[in-house]
Amino acid sequence: MKQKKLNSLLSAVAVGFIALVTPVFGQTGKVDVDDPKFDVLQSPEFGGNTNKKNFKPKDWLEAEAKIKIEMPKGYDKAFIDRVTVKWKIAVKNPEGKGYILLEKEVNHVNVPVDEDVYVSIYISPNTIKRISGNDRASKSIIKSVGGEILVNGQAAHNKSGQFSTDGKPGWWNSPSMSRNDSIPLLNKDETPFKALWYDRYAEIEKKR
């Protein structure tokens, strides 16, 4: 008799726990993310009434991914307050063999629900030359691009926010992948492309 009462009590506790946890997990967004695409871009030339200067545009490397976020039933907003993209890029080690890991966390705001938007990350001409010793951009200096997308600070449903060019997210956790913080990645607002194609991309949170 005591055992039956104990089993009933445990069952009630389990049901109560599930009831508490389910709404939390139920509010997690699901992310549909395409594999990142590479592009070589030249520094843009802007006109205006400024004096003309000798200027030869240099190459940038851009990686961008198309994302669409689906929120669960009961989410009554048309926009998401914050979407965080944790970029991971493996590039050739400029000081030796193998590859090093470059990282950048970019926060996006006012991201529409159920609508295609793009997120991107950039490697500057100076970084390209530092890695390759050449002014010309080459995709060969990059081994893999990947990362993880968080929705309002939470991991996306069923790991749907993880992405990678090689189809194997998580390679950045390998012990053989050493991180380098002295070589920067740049978000779009930190580049000359800030005002270009503005409506294509998710808005970047401004630093206060």
From TrEMBL:
Keyword set, alphabetical order: Signal
Classification via InterPro entries: Amuc_1102-like
Superkingdom of origin: Bacteria
Signal sequence range: 1-26
Protein's recorded name: Uncharacterized protein
Organism (species): Rubritalea squalenifaciens DSM 18772
Lineage summary: Bacteria, Pseudomonadati, Verrucomicrobiota, Verrucomicrobiia, Verrucomicrobiales
